[in-house]
Each structure stands twice: as structure tokens, then as C-alpha cells.
Specification:
Helices cover about 50% and strands about 5% of the residues. With about 280 residues, the protein is mainly alpha-helical. It folds into three domains: about 40 residues, no CATH class; about 50 residues, no CATH class; about 110 residues, Orthogonal Bundle (Cytochrome p450-Terp, domain 2), CATH 1.10.230. It has a three-stranded antiparallel sheet, with no helix packed on it. β2 and β3 form a beta hairpin. The longest helix has 19 residues. It is globular, with a radius of gyration of 25 Å.
Length: about 280
């Protein structure tokens, strides 16, 4: 492709051309997945191993894969009150299909405060802070800059409670697997200590811990974001199933009297005798 090409020239250069370094399907023959035969060379991979290989192009050790598995397991909560699970459950209550309901629930998992939005901010903050510290910036200055820019520190604090029940279990598994504290995990704890000792009183949440572990495993922000895509998935299907087994429309019904309406008052409907389709 010509450097700097754009518009019609860019489109003309790609007419009838489809090249991929990721993979190719040869009908009736074989499938190439990142340069390897999917059904022979990669046939013994488990799903998470294949998934992370597809995202990063790198192989992870069995212990690293166990940790990555648990990152998903420990945050799959089958609680219909959670914002994304509620979407899946409402789909079941409305008798929509399972695929549509769960796909919609995963889509709203992009949430900037609770979901993928905060995850990518958390790992970007850790990577950026480590770089700034290496260049001579103080931790206090890095934290204050972040607070001035975003009014919060991604990966620290929690709306419901100042602490996270998942962290202790993930840290225990990390220790059990023999992992020490990597560069970014140490930094994450240093930030927590600084924030908790100061007037902010914020502790690290799951997003901060997982971002640090992923950074220590070499994930880029985009790789980390894509890896976390199914993190809530296992908790969604139970919510959809339970709602679909109950009477249709019975999940979170709202009475008209519960709706606060501040528009125009009740008014008569006037039929002008004409139709917009005429």
C-alpha cells in the first residue's frame, strides 16, 4: 500500500485484495490461525489459551493461564441487580432470544465507570505513571495530575464500599501459583498506600489489581481491553434463564403512579380527519 494514500486512491489499492496475517479459512481443507493450523497445531489449546493467543500472538504458561482464567471467574456475578446482568434478565423476561439478550448485556458492559471503560483507563494510568516515575516525576505529582485531569483514579475507590471482595482471592491465587510482585503490581500497591494515607482514603479495587497483573504479563491497553470482553459473561446466563422461567414481563414492573412526569398536563386527543399517509 502506498504511504499516505487516502480517499479513492486508498480504496482503489484495496479493490479485490484481502490479505491477512491473522488467519484464513480454506473450505474443506484447513484453517490458519495466526500462522498455525487450527485443527492440528493448535488443537490441544483450551479456549482461554486460544483466545489470548488470538489477541496477543503470544503463548502463556499454564500458571499464567490459570491466573487469566480466574480473572474472569472471580467477577462473574449472577446478580440481576447489576447493570449489565439486568439487560440479560429483561431480555429473558420479554422472551427475547438468549443470544440477543447476552449480546446486549455485553454491549452495556462498555460502561465508563463500572466496565471496560474504567479497565482501559486503569491500565493506561499504570503504564503512564511508571513511565513518568522513570523520568523523574514523583508519585504524588503523578497522582495529582491524574486527579486534576479525571477527578478520579481508575482502579481505586468503589461506589458501594471502599474495598473489593475479589482482591484477596486473586492475590491468594497469585501467591499459590508462585508469582511475585511485578513492577506494575508494586506500583499499584504504592498508589493505594499513597491514596489511603491521604485525604482520599481510597483502596485499590478489582480493576486496579487486574490491570496491574495484566501489565506485568505484558498486555497492552488494547490487548487487555479485548481480553476482558467476556469477563462478566458467566454471570449473565443464569440471570436470563431465571427471568425467562418466571411470568413474562414480571421482572422490575413499574406502576404508572411510580413515574414522575413533568410534561404537559392531560389533554384531549383531536382527530383532524386527515392522514399523514394521504
Amino acid at each position: 500500500m502506498k504511504t499516505g494514500s487516502k480517499g479513492p486512491d486508498l480504496l482503489r489499492e484495496n479493490v479485490g485484495v484481502l490479505k491477512s496475517r491473522m488467519g484464513t479459512f480454506f473450505p474443506g481443507s484447513h484453517v490458519i490461525f495466526r500462522g498455525h493450523d487450527l485443527h492440528t497445531e493448535l488443537k490441544d489449546m483450551d479456549w482461554v489459551e486460544l483466545y489470548t493467543f488470538g489477541i496477543t500472538g503470544r503463548r502463556f504458561s499454564p500458571k499464567e493461564l490459570r491466573l487469566l482464567h480466574s480473572i474472569w471467574t472471580y467477577t462473574s456475578y449472577p446478580d440481576v441487580r447489576l447493570w449489565n446482568n439486568r439487560v440479560a434478565a429483561l431480555a429473558g423476561s420479554a422472551r427475547s432470544t438468549g443470544n440477543l439478550g447476552v449480546a446486549a448485556a455485553l454491549a452495556v458492559s462498555e460502561a465508563s465507570i463500572y466496565g471496560r471503560g474504567i479497565d482501559i483507563r486503569a491500565i493506561e494510568f499504570l503504564l503512564r505513571t511508571r513511565k513518568q516515575l522513570d523520568e523523574g516525576c514523583s508519585l504524588e505529582e503523578c497522582v495529582r495530575r491524574e486527579l486534576e485531569s479525571n477527578r478520579s483514579i481508575a482502579g481505586y475507590g468503589r461506589p458501594l464500599i471502599n474495598g473489593d471482595e475479589r482482591n484477596q482471592h486473586l492475590l491468594a491465587l497469585k501467591k499459590e501459583l508462585g508469582f511475585g510482585e511485578g513492577v506494575y503490581l508494586r506500583l499499584a500497591f504504592e498508589i493505594e498506600e499513597f491514596l489511603f494515607a491521604g485525604r482520599w482514603r481510597m483502596k485499590m479495587n478489582y480493576a486496579g489489581l487486574v490491570a496491574a497483573l495484566a501489565a506485568d504479563l505484558g498486555f497492552s491497553p488494547r490487548e487487555y481491553y479485548l481480553f476482558l470482553f467476556p469477563a462478566f459473561l458467566a454471570g449473565m446466563q443464569p440471570c436470563l434463564i431465571e427471568a425467562s422461567e418466571r411470568p413474562e414481563g414480571a421482572l422490575y414492573p413499574i406502576s404508572c403512579s411510580d413515574i414522575l412526569y413533568e410534561g404537559r398536563s392531560k389533554r384531549p386527543w383531536r382527530n383532524t380527519g386527515s392522514s399523514s399517509r394521504e
